[in-house]
Design a protein that fits this description.
By secondary structure, the protein is of the alpha/beta class. It has two domains: 34 residues; 215 residues, Alpha/Beta hydrolase fold, catalytic domain (Rossmann fold, 3-Layer(aba) Sandwich). Helices cover 36% and strands 18% of the residues. It has seven helices and eight strands, in the order ααβββαβαβαββαβα. It is globular.
C-alpha cells in the first residue's frame, strides 16, 4: 500500500514538473515573440515579385536572385540580427540581387542566430562550385563569423554590419577577407566590445563608417530600442552599405 502511495506521489511530481517546464517554455516563446522586430511595410513590399528579382521561400530562409539572368559571384549568405525576422532584411537582399548576386537570408530558430549557426550549409550546398561570402547584422554577424571560422575552405570572406568577430569566431589565422561596416549614430552596438574584438579579424580587413547611420537601419524593421535617431534615411544607409559591399567584392576578385 505504501509503495503504491509513493509511486502515485512521484507520478504527480513528475506530471507537475513536466507541466511547469511546458508553461515556462511556452511563456518564453510568447515573450520572445512579443519583443521580436517585424518587417516594415517597405520590407514587406520588397518581398513581392516584380519580374526582375526572383524571391523564393526555401527551407532555411529566403533566396533572392536575378530573374532570367546569370548571377554575379560571390553568392551572399546573410544572418539576421537578434530578434529580427528575416523579412526585415528584404530591401537589403533585393538590392544586392539587383546588382546581380544570389542572396540567402537565413531564418533562425526563435530569430536568434545562436540557434542556427550552421544554416549556411544548405545554401552553400545548392552551388558548391561557386564563390560565397557570409555576413550578418549585430548578433547575426557574430555567429556568421563563428561559422566562417569553421568553414574557411568554402568561403571567400566575412562581412559585419554593426557587428564583430568574438573569440570563437576569430579569423586571425585564416586567409579570409573581412569587411566591417558601422554607423556613426549607432546606439546599440557596444563600441568598447567592437574595438576589443578587432584582434579577432584577419589582416585583410576593410573598415567602412557610414556618417549618420544607426543600428536599426541596417535592416528595415522600425526603431530599435536603445538606438539613436539617424541623420540619414534608411534608403541612404542601404545605398552606402551596398556600395561598401560592392567595392569589397571587387577586391575579393583580384
Amino acid at each position: 500500500m505504501k509503495t503504491a502511495q509513493r509511486n502515485n506521489k512521484w507520478k504527480k511530481i513528475l506530471i507537475w514538473s513536466c507541466l511547469s517546464v511546458i508553461i515556462i517554455v511556452a511563456g518564453l516563446f510568447v515573450y520572445l515573440q512579443s519583443i521580436t522586430y517585424n518587417p516594415s511595410e517597405r520590407a514587406e513590399a520588397a518581398l513581392k515579385p516584380d519580374g526582375q528579382i526572383s524571391i523564393t521561400k526555401i527551407k532555411n530562409g529566403y533566396r533572392f536572385e536575378p530573374e532570367g539572368a546569370e548571377t554575379v559571384e560571390p553568392n551572399i549568405v546573410f544572418y539576421p540580427g537578434g530578434l529580427v525576422e528575416p523579412a526585415g532584411y528584404a530591401p537589403f537582399a533585393k538590392k544586392l540581387a539587383e546588382e546581380g548576386h544570389r542572396v540567402y537570408v537565413a531564418n533562425m530558430p526563435l530569430n536568434l542566430a545562436m540557434f542556427g549557426q550552421n544554416k549556411a550549409d544548405s545554401f552553400i550546398e545548392e552551388h558548391p562550385d561557386e564563390a560565397f561570402v557570409i555576413g550578418g547584422h549585430s548578433l547575426g554577424g557574430v555567429f556568421a563569423s563563428r561559422y566562417a571560422a569553421q568553414h574557411t575552405d568554402t568561403l571567400e570572406g566575412v562581412f559585419y554590419l554593426a557587428s564583430y568577430a568574438d573569440e570563437s569566431g576569430s579569423l586571425t589565422e585564416t586567409d579570409l577577407s573581412a569587411l566591417q561596416i558601422t554607423g556613426t549614430d549607432d546606439g546599440v552596438l557596444n563600441i568598447e566590445s567592437w574595438e576589443d574584438a578587432k584582434i579577432n579579424l584577419p589582416e585583410d580587413t576593410t573598415f567602412v563608417s557610414i556618417q549618420g547611420g544607426n543600428h536599426g537601419q541596417f535592416g528595415s524593421y522600425g526603431e530599435q530600442k536603445g538606438d539613436h535617431t539617424p541623420a540619414i534615411t534608411e534608403e541612404q544607409q542601404l545605398e552606402e552599405v551596398v556600395k561598401g559591399l560592392e567595392e569589397w567584392f571587387k577586391r575579393l576578385n583580384r
